[in-house]
Amino acid sequence: xxxxxxxxxxxxxxxxxxxxxxxxxxxxxxxxxxxxxxxxxxxxxxxxxxxxxxxxxxxxxxxxxxxxxxxxxxxxxxxxxxxxxxxxxxxxxxxxxxxxxxxxxxxxxxxxxxxxxxxxxxxxxxxxxxxxxxxxxxxxxxxxxxxxxxxxxxxxxxxxxxxxxxxxxxxxxxxxxxxxxxxxxxxxxxxxxxxxxxxxxxx
Length: 203
Description:
Helices cover 67% and strands 0% of the residues. It is an all-alpha fold. The longest helix is centred in the middle third of the chain and has 22 residues, at 64-85.
């Protein structure tokens, strides 16, 4: 078989024999492409496309929810990088502004909104529960930024504050799914600003 132009062929279109041995990251790469294309992420199909056994796939990632969670986190992490690249101002203003931009970016990202709309209960389980890494990594991100806040009240545990901020964000960003109310990233940002300014003594 000629290898001319092989580098331009999509991974999921290549026969397994033409590829190097798949890795755990190849699973997420392929699932990420499917997610962006609106294609359902099916574990059996992932294993078949990559030329690995289902047992191997489940040993690597455990469940479909975990795979999708990693895909969603890749999307959110990319959004965080873009949002923070434009950051300016003091630590409080910067955090609140970045949080608001992130909330708006996530909620308006069509593949993610489509995923939640197609199966709201499942989508929220992936995004807002302990079934996957999404919520815990969002809390980690928020906690790492909150350490820069000036004069943080010593009675406040940073991770508790980060948890509250993330949960508030989830409640307003996905309110159409949770309560039927329109999603309001601006309300999430306003509530987070109240929490952060009060906790840092800048209110």
